[in-house]
Structure formats: C-alpha cells, structure tokens
C-alpha cells in the first residue's frame, strides 16, 4: 500500500510496540506533540504515556537512560530530534552503548534503537541540517541504518528494533513526505543488505538516503544518453554490504559515490577504500565522490541548494568517467 | 627442392604480423593456394594461402609469434626431397630467421642506448591505464602498450582492451575475405614481383617549395580556373623528362632479356575501393603538362568507373605511386613487373631549413624509388633520382617562370625583443611553469644535469648544443631561450645554434622546429651581441 | 528493619574483603603484576557495603572508575574480579574490560565506568526498566563529588524525579575530584542540597559509618520501591590512597590523611560490633583470617588463568 516515509516509520513503531511489550519510545516531544516531524503521532493515544515518554530537553538522559534500560531488558526506541544534537549525548552512545557489550566480555545486550533526523533542505542551517552518519560508522558496536524509501524505512526499522545491538536509525527530513509502495503486513529487511534501486551496466552509483532519489533521476537522464547507471543503496552503512558493492563495480567498472555529508572523511571515503582494497582491478576509471563541500550547512536558500549534491552534479561526475 | 614460406607482407603499411594459427599440421599435404596459416595484421586477420604445393615439413614459427614481414616461417617439402636436404633447408631458414630477429633486436638495443630521447616520455605524459583494463590485459596476455586509450585523458579502459581482443580473436570484427578477383590478381602480381625482382628502395628528400610556387603560378594563369595541375601531373612530367635521360630505368625485363622501349609510358597507380589499378600515360615524354593532366584525369575517372581498356594498362615502362595524399612520408613500393622501377611519392611537409644561413619555412617531399637491382645498378638509380630531384627543385626554367617573392617563407629574425626582455620572459616563464607543471621543469633540469655531468668526453659547449636540440624537441620556449643563451655564452656561433636546432628533426621533432624557429632566430639575434 | 547479627557480620566481612582486595591490588600493581591503572576504594568501604546490603535480586547498581568495592559489596566473586584486573580470560569480562569496566550484569552490576558521571543516566534507565516491568526492583548509582558537577547528574536527577524512577543516587563525597578539593570544585558544603533543585529528598550521612549509610539507603530504597521516586544520598567519606595508584597526593596533607585514617570505617564498625557485643574478637579475627585466605586464593586464581586468545579481539563487538 502507498504510504509516506513518515507513515511507514510510524507503522513500524506501532507494529513493534504491539508485538513486543518491552518496546517503548522516549524522546523530546514524541508524545502528545507527536514528534517534531509528526513521526510518532497517535502512538501515545494508542499505547499510553507509560510506553510513549516525553522527556525533558535532556539528550544525555534520553540516551543514557535508554542504554541502562536496554541493558536491563527493555527495547527502547529513543528519538533525538535532530542528528546535530547527538553531540550532547555522544558519550552515552559512543562510550556506553557502543562499547558495553565488548567491555563486559559479551555478557550484556544493548538493544537500543536511536532514531534521528539528518539532512539539509528546510533552511534549518548549520545546527539542524547535518548528515553525521560517518561518525557512527566509526564506532565498533553500533549499527548504522539510513533508509531512503518508505518500504525500506519500515522493514529496516522493524529489524533495528528487533536487533540486540545499539542501532542508529537515520531518517532524512526531506524524505518524510515522500510516498512509496509499502508491503502489506509484517516484514523485515535484514540489516547489512544493500538494495539495487536500478540496474545498469555502465557505472555504479552508490547513494544514501535522499541522494538515492537524486541518483535515480540522474540515472534516468543519462539513460537517454546511452549511459546505463546502476544505483546501489547500501541502506545500512554498518554492517555494510561489501558483496553487492563489489559485484556491481565488477560489473560496471566505474564507481561514483553520492552522499549529502561533507566529502572529507565522509562514508564515501570508506566505500572508495573498500573498492581500492578489494576491487582495485575492477576499476576502469577513478572513483568519484559527489558530496557536500567542506563547510557547515548554510542558511540562505541558494547557498543551501548549492550545498547539497544535485542531480546535475551527479550527472557531471558520472560523465567525467567516460 | 624445399620451399621456404615467408611471413607475408599483407598491406603497404604492414611491418610485422602475428601468426594467429596454422591451418595445417606438420606432415600435412598442402596445395598451392590452399589456406595454410592465419596472420593478424594491424587491422585484419587474413588466411594466407600456401605459395607452394608439397608437404608441410616444418613450422618454424608457432601460432602466437609476432614477426617482421619476409622472415621464414615454414618449410614445405617438394616431392622427392630427401631428409638431409630438408634438414639443411630448415637450418638455413632458421638461421635466416634468427638473423632477422636478432637484427630487430639490435635495432631495439640501439633505441635503448639513445638515452637522451627516452626521458621525454615524462613530458609526453605517462600512459594511463585503468586497473580493470590492466587486469584484463594481464589475463588475456596482451601488451597494454599496443592499445590506444579512449577514456578521459587517453586512459586505456576495459572497452579498449576488449575491442583490441576482438580484433585479435576475431569476434565481431572478424572477417574472412576471399582473395579473388582483382585482389587475387594484385596478390599474385605483387608477390610474384617481390619474389622475382631484387627490390631495393632508395629515398630522397626533395625541396618542393619552388615546385609549389610553379604549380601556384601555373594554376593562376588559367583565369577560368578549369585547369588545376596536380603534383602528380608535375611529377609525371618531370619523371618522363628524367627517364628520357636514363633509359635503363625506363626498361622492361623478362627472365633473360632487358627491353628498352622507345617510348616513356608512365603508369599512375589509382586506388580503387577494392584494390588498385595502374593505367599508363603513353608517350608521356612527348606530352605537354596540360595533355598529361587531361590524360591523368581521364584515366583515373575511367579506372574508377571500371571503363579502362586493356591497352590502358598494358606496355607501361615506369610507375608512379603517390601515397602523399594518404599522409605516407616514404615507403617501399613494389615494382610493377615487368617494369624495373617504381617511384613512390610521399606527402608534402613543411620544415624549417637553413637557406643561406637563415631559417626558412620550406616544403619537402620524400621520393622513394624501388628498382630491380638485377637490372639497374644502385648508382644509376641514385643518379636518376638525383636528377629528378634537381629538376623538381628548380622547375622555373621549364615553364619560363620566375620565382615569386614569397615573404611567408622567410622566418623573420629579431622580433623586436631585447635580450633583457627575452631573459625576463624566460625567468617569468620558468616561474609560471614551476607553478603549473613543476614536473616538467624538474624533469628537464634532471635531464640536462645528466647531460652536463662532466664526463670529460663531450665538451661543455657541445652539451649545451645538445640541450638546445632537446629544448626545441620538447618545444619548451624557456628552455630554448636559456640554452641558447648559455651556448652562446660558451662561444657558440649562430650557425652552430641553428645546426643544433635542426638536430631536433633527427629526434622526430620537425614540427617542433617549425614551431620554435622564430624563437630560435630571436634568441640568436638577441644574444649575438653579447 | 535493622540487620541481624549474621547480616552485620557479613557486612563486616565484605568491608574487610574490599580492604584486603584493594590493598592486595595496590601491592601487586606496585610490583608491576597488573597492567593499566587502578583506582582503589580503600577507606570508602562503608558506603558500598552499607548501601548494597539492602539490595535484592532485581536491583541494579551502576558504579564508577573506583568500582571494585561496589562489585564486591554486590556479591561479585573476588576470583573473577581479580582475574579481570589481571586481564585474564576467567575475569568477569574475559579480560576485555579491566579494572575500570568490571561488570557482572547477572548480579545487577552494570559495571564500573571509565567516564565520570556516566552511571547516573544508566542507573535511571535500569530503574525505568524495573518500573516498566513492575518487578519491584530499584537501581543504585554510585558516583563521586566530582561527578555531581556533570550534566549527567542534573539530567538524570531531573528525569528520575519527573518519572518517579526507583533509583537511589549515592554520592560518595570523598572530598576530592582527582586533585581538586570539594571546596575548590563546588560552592556548597552538602551535595545533598542539590536534591532540592529536582524536588527529591536529599540526605547527607557519615560515609564512614556503615550503619548510618545502611539506614539512609534502607529508607531511600523503601521509598523507591513504594513508587515515591528517587533519593539523593550524600556519604561523606575519604579515600585513604591516591586518586589512582602512583598518585603522589601533592594536593592534600599527610595530616589530613591521618586524621581520616583515624575514622577508618572498618575499625569503627569492628569496635562497635565488639562494644555492642554482637561479635567477639575471636569471631572478627576468624573473619579476618578467612578474608586473607580468600584474597590469596583469588590472586592464585587470577595468576593461573590464561590470557584471552587473540581470536577474542573482535568477538563480543556485536550480538549475533
């Protein structure tokens, strides 16, 4: 059935809360207000304030308490309103959630799902628009999920909640209104399985989140010029589906990586490095990255538009390889 | 008697070929004209027919060998050949093969020794190959250096290797062409000629600046614009004149007779879609340039329309093959038997040349004369070609014309730049070059340092002059200026500088010399006063 | 409500066990037999034992970098703890955590913690889980005076307060945040005063009096189990040793240390057990001998245990 990305996430939360009593939601304004972007709307009415908890503006306490509760047997789904705010609860996620299992010799599970929102596009400027996924891919012990479509969002969120590890589930604010076909009923999408969003023989474009959509538009345009683009959506950055990436690059010989995060030390660098290490001989051209410039997200609309990789920039990068 | 199968020359430009497969095994009987082996040239895979009937006794070069043309590749036994004579033939052929291959090797070694030229690869930019293309080439065992790149910046990409492999293996571009019809005639005649005549080719570079002027003047005389003389017309005219002075070059021959005809019938090779045909201009020595021109056009038209009469192609006494329009410089034409000589005409190129101690832009053409050494002695051939050159270089008297003043030919000196300006330009240039292409500057410095390392064998001045030549070769204005300055400081004369600049031509830098001639002159002028 | 004789002797035994454990670790550390660095609990035994003696199966504790005492008070095996500190495979965390990350989740011990103040929200979360699961369990968070200046303290107390979480925040005010004395690092005398800001009870007790701690904790835990929310208990105590082993303690005087050593919580408790005729000298001596034996065995156990295989390097990063 057709639903929005936002509705799909809401549906996943509802289904998992029904299915498993230990699942609860906490975060700023997730209850009566329905979430800053309305994603948790209606859940407090359905499940009550015992399971849908409004928190004070205390990211440290949100994540810290969720880690404690997860270690004590619950499955919290915490929401951090903007990914930018992860800076104020980094210790709880990075030093506690991510490392606890290892530090304790494998004797604890931290089944915490941390939902948060990335991306520019709303004129929200430098502290409410960042794409910081690469930080979290640098944390052994954490899984990093970045869905691009409603169907993926639902299936991946269900898997994230059921996963016994801390998962950061990164939603894109410009995708909430995007609609798409979502399978009926309960289903999961395994973490660590990339999806080929479009098949092509000439060049592999690995794109994440919102960029998947732009890559698909670029692919459509280039198809008219005889370049068949394969668009690979990793969907989860950790664990990362190397096999699909390498198979695709082996097929096409060319790789363009598109992400909204700044290029420097972005996850694109990791993807490029994987191909350099394990698929060097597949390459028929240098690896290209299309990403934001090394600058904070600007406010002014034309600057913001220029900041985020466009279809044109993707096309340009692809064409430079031929 | 044992027959030796040679690596065939399957095209004018073919220098080497790769045996892609033997269609017969040793011990197989083979008929003359029956496909014997497959040879891949630059362009096509060709089935080569056996030139002899007999038993394929020994394959000297297995499939996969890449060989220069005309080396022995197999021995075919005739009926009645005994083992001993066959083995003798095999060892003789092997010796010939080894010698031919070793000769090639020596050539390569010589190239390697010519170290000063090698480092220029740095300036030409390194060959770029994608890892994927390199992997495929490794896997398929092909030399990536033979493949030209179509990727960005000339990078060799997978597709290039695949295309190359398809060429090698056949694939989509695989074609088997029957050698029949005109092709069969050509093949037969060419190889027969090659076999029968003792081919020798000599080449001479002719300054055709005056000829060009004459042609322009003549064409300008006809205000209707109807008559347009081609170089071929002029060449036919002068060759006919020269042949009257050298009847032996105009001869026809058979196994045991030399026939000296009373007329000069000059054949002009006309390229057709599927081969070539050589109609001839009868009594060319008695025809005016206009008549020759009309005749040449008529024969060419009829040749293309397949309307030639048998007499048009019979009784030729000499042939001109003009590959100049296809860009060939010099080549080794095969004699159109039973004629005894053939003139190959190369393309016209401009080069700077020293004329009365000054650089001028001149037009040159290479003439290649192949002759049957059995009939014509080398000295005679050389004299003939020299005479032809003489005529072509001073054609004015033949037409009652005077040289046109052509200011364009002169490469003007000075350019108004003072030594100080040039030196400053040099400094600025180096600085700019350091910013944009430091590797060029460093590479060149390294190279010249190598040259200037004082080994005591070559004088400092000569080394500087070498550097001038190299600078011209790489067209580096700043290097040219610097080294001319240094050379003149060490006492070089303007003539020595110009000689050195001309050496660039030796490195294959003729175009570079043309490009930099003015600067060289300017520098001589500017630094001469020091 | 008050502990019986057996319970009190057990408390005494645990305090001694902590003391013996820590002094042994100090000794081994100085001999270079223990890798890394260690923060020892000597002098503060009354806090851990006084609080933990109130806890049951469903209860959690979250600890600090100075966590050995909390683990032992919660009933952890000294063998496995010693092995962990040695970095051996038979340690609580297979040697992957070490002194600063010893944990025994099976005992409700959510671990020592290398980050000052990190335990407060974790304990709040564990308390939330107990409340959510309605199992009657509580959570205790031990933290120091230094941690009371961290954001985690304020956010966790506030959250626990508004959600009425069954959590007891036990501040071990040992007068120093590393080198910085309390009077230099905060402008209050009693950290318990900060409870007012979150609308929860705050009490300040003599942290070297195990019975005082015990009683304050009992009261707080009773409130928590009754759904009345969190309590902040400040236990004023003192670490006899440096912040970490090897600390030259230039920031405090020998006189000050000696003053506090006179208030040794174990001596005080032993004396009062004798004075109240709860135990005889012989009984206490016997306990002391047993404890020494126990720790000797723990060291033996730790020494004999192998180091983890290198194949352990990347295991336990994720649950499968």
Automatic annotation (TrEMBL), chain A:
Residues 3-178 form the Transketolase-like pyrimidine-binding domain. GO terms for molecular function: oxidoreductase activity. The keyword Oxidoreductase applies. Gene3D superfamilies: 3.40.50.920, 3.40.50.970. Its cofactor is thiamine diphosphate. Transmembrane segments: none annotated. InterPro entries: THDP-binding, Transketo_C/PFOR_II, Transketolase-like_Pyr-bd, Transketolase_C. SMART domains: Transket_pyr. It holds the Pfam family Transketolase_C. Keywords: Oxidoreductase, Pyruvate, Thiamine pyrophosphate. NCBIfam families: PRK09212.1. This is Pyruvate dehydrogenase E1 component beta subunit. It comes from Desulfofundulus thermosubterraneus DSM 16057.
UniProtKB/TrEMBL annotation, chain B:
Pfam families: 2-oxoacid_dh, Biotin_lipoyl, CMD, E3_binding. Residues 2-77 form the Lipoyl-binding domain. SUPFAM superfamilies: AhpD-like, CoA-dependent acyltransferases, Peripheral subunit-binding domain of 2-oxo acid dehydrogenase complex, Single hybrid motif. Residues 128-165 form the Peripheral subunit-binding (PSBD) domain. GO terms for molecular function: acetyltransferase activity; lipoic acid binding; peroxiredoxin activity. It is an enzyme of class 2 (transferase). Coiled coil: none annotated. PANTHER family: DIHYDROLIPOAMIDE ACETYLTRANSFERASE COMPONENT OF PYRUVATE DEHYDROGENASE COMPLEX, LIPOAMIDE ACYLTRANSFERASE COMPONENT OF BRANCHED-CHAIN ALPHA-KETO ACID DEHYDROGENASE COMPLEX, MITOCHONDRIAL. Belongs to the 2-oxoacid dehydrogenase family. This is Dihydrolipoamide acetyltransferase component of pyruvate dehydrogenase complex. It comes from Desulfofundulus thermosubterraneus DSM 16057.
TrEMBL record, chain C:
Gene3D superfamilies: 3.40.50.970. Its cofactor is thiamine diphosphate. It holds the Pfam family E1_dh. Residues 13-310 form the Dehydrogenase E1 component domain. The pyruvate dehydrogenase complex catalyzes the overall conversion of pyruvate to acetyl-CoA and CO(2). Heterodimer of an alpha and a beta chain. This is Pyruvate dehydrogenase E1 component subunit alpha. It comes from Desulfofundulus thermosubterraneus DSM 16057. The lineage of its organism: Bacteria, Bacillati, Bacillota, Clostridia, Eubacteriales.
């Amino acid at each position: 059935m057709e639903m929005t990305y936002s509705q799909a996430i809401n549906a996943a939360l509802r289904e998992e809360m029904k299915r498993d009593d230990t699942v609860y939601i906490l975060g700023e304004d997730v209850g009566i207000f329905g979430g800053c972007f309305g994603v948790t709307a209606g859940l407090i009415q359905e499940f009550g304030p015992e399971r849908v908890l409004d928190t004070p503006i205390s990211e440290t306490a949100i994540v810290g308490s969720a880690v404690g509760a997860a270690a004590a047997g619950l499955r919290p789904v915490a929401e951090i309103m903007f990914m930018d705010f992860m800076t104020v609860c980094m210790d709880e996620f990075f030093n506690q959630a991510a490392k606890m299992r290892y530090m304790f010799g494998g004797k604890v599970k931290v089944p915490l799902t941390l939902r948060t929102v990335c991306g520019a596009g709303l004129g929200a400027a430098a502290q409410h628009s960042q794409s910081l996924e690469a930080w979290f891919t640098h944390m052994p012990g954490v899984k990093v999920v970045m869905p691009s479509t409603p169907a993926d969002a639902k299936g991946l969120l269900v898997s994230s909640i059921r996963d016994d590890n801390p998962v950061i589930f990164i939603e894109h604010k410009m995708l909430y209104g995007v609609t798409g076909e979502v399978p009926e009923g309960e289903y999961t999408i395994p973490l660590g399985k990339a999806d080929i969003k479009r098949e092509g023989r000439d060049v592999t474009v690995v794109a994440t989140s919102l960029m998947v959509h732009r890559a698909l538009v670029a692919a459509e345009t280039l198809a008219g010029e005889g370049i068949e683009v394969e668009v690979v959506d990793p969907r989860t950055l950790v664990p990362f589906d190397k096999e699909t990436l390498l198979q695709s690059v082996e097929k096409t010989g060319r790789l363009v990586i598109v992400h909204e995060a700044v290029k420097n030390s972005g996850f694109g660098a990791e993807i490029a490095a994987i191909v350099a290490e394990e698929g060097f001989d597949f390459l028929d051209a240098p690896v290209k990255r299309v990403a934001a410039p090394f600058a904070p997200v600007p406010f002014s609309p034309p600057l913001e538009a220029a900041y985020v990789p466009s279809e044109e920039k993707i096309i340009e990068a692809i064409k430079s390889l031929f | 008697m044992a027959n030796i199968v040679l690596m065939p020359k399957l095209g004018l430009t073919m220098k080497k070929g790769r045996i892609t497969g033997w269609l017969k095994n040793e011990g197989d009987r083979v008929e003359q004209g029956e496909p014997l082996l497959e040879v891949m040239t630059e362009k096509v895979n060709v089935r080569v027919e056996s030139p002899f009937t007999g038993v394929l006794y020994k394959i000297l070069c297995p499939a996969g060998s890449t060989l220069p043309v005309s080396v022995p590749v197999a021995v075919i036994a005739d009926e009645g050949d005994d083992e001993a004579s066959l083995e003798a033939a095999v060892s003789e052929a092997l010796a010939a093969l080894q010698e031919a291959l070793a000769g090639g090797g020596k050539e390569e070694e010589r190239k390697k020794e010519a170290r000063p030229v090698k480092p220029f690869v740095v300036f030409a930019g390194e060959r770029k190959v994608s890892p994927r293309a390199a992997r495929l080439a490794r896997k398929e065992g092909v030399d990536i250096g033979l493949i030209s790149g179509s990727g960005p910046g000339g990078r060799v990409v997978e597709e290039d290797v695949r295309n190359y492999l398809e060429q090698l293996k056949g694939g989509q571009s695989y074609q088997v062409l029957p050698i029949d019809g005109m092709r069969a005639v050509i093949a037969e005649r060419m190889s027969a000629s090659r076999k029968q005549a003792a081919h020798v080719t000599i080449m001479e570079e002719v300054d055709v600046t005056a000829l060009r002027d004459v042609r322009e003047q003549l064409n300008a005389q006809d205000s209707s614009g109807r008559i347009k003389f081609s170089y071929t017309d002029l060449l036919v005219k002068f060759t006919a004149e020269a042949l009257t002075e050298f009847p032996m070059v105009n001869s026809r021959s058979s196994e045991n007779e030399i026939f000296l005809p009373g007329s000069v019938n000059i054949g002009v090779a006309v390229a057709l879609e599927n081969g070539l045909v050589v109609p001839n201009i009868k009594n060319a020595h008695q025809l005016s340039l206009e008549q020759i021109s009309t005749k040449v056009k008529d024969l060419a038209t009829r040749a293309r329309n397949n309307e030639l009469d048998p007499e048009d192609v019979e009784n030729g006494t000499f042939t001109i093959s003009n590959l100049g329009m296809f860009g060939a410089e010099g080549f080794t034409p095969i004699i159109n038997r039973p004629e005894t000589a053939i003139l190959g005409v190369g393309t016209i190129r401009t080069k700077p040349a020293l004329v009365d101690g000054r650089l001028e832009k001149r037009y040159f053409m290479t003439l290649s004369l192949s002759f049957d050494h059995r009939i014509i002695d080398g000295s005679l051939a050389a004299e003939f070609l020299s005479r032809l050159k003489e005529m072509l270089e001073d054609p004015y008297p033949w037409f009652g014309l005077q040289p046109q003043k052509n200011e364009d030919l002169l490469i003007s000196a000075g350019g108004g730049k003072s030594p100080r300006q040039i030196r400053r330009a040099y400094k600025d240039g180096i600085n700019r070059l350091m910013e944009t292409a430091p590797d060029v500057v460093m590479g060149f410095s390294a190279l010249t340092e190598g040259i200037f390392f004082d080994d005591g064998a070559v004088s400092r001045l000569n080394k500087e002059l070498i550097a001038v030549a190299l600078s011209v070769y790489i067209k580096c204005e700043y290097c040219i200026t610097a080294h001319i300055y240094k050379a003149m400081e060490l006492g070089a004369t303007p003539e020595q500088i110009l000689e050195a600049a001309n050496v660039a031509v030796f490195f294959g830098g003729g175009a570079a010399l043309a490009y930099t001639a003015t600067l060289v002159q300017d520098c001589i002028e500017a630094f001469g006063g020091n | 409500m008050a502990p019986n004789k057996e319970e009190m002797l057990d408390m005494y035994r645990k305090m001694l066990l902590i003391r013996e454990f820590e002094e042994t670790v100090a000794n081994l550390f100085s001999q270079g037999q223990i890798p890394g660095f260690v923060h020892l609990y000597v002098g503060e035994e009354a806090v851990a034992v006084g609080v933990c003696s109130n806890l049951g199966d469903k209860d959690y504790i979250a600890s600090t970098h100075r966590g050995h005492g909390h683990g032992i008070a919660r009933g952890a095996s000294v063998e496995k703890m010693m092995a962990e500190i040695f970095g051996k495979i038979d340690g609580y965390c297979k040697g992957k955590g070490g002194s600063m990350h010893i944990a025994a989740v099976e005992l409700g011990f959510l671990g020592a913690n290398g980050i000052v103040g990190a335990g407060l929200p974790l304990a709040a979360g564990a308390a939330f889980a107990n409340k959510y699961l309605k199992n009657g369990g509580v959570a205790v968070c031990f933290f120091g005076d230094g941690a009371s200046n961290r954001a985690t303290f304020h956010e966790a107390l506030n959250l626990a307060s508004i959600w009425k979480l069954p959590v007891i925040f036990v501040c071990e005010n040992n007068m120093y945040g590393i080198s910085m004395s309390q009077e230099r690092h905060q402008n209050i005398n009693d950290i318990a005063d900060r409870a007012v800001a979150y609308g929860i009870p705050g009490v300040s007790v003599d942290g070297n009096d195990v019975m005082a701690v015990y009683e304050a904790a009992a009261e707080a835990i009773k409130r928590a189990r009754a759904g009345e929310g969190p309590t902040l208990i400040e236990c004023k105590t003192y670490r006899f040793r440096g912040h970490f082993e090897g600390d030259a303690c230039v920031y405090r005087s020998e006189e000050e240390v000696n003053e506090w050593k006179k208030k040794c919580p174990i001596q005080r408790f032993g004396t009062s057990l004798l004075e109240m005729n709860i135990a005889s000298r012989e009984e206490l001596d016997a306990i002391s001998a047993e404890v020494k034996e126990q720790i000797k065995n723990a060291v033996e156990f730790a020494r004999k245990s192998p180091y983890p295989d290198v194949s352990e390097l990347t295991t336990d990063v994720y649950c499968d």
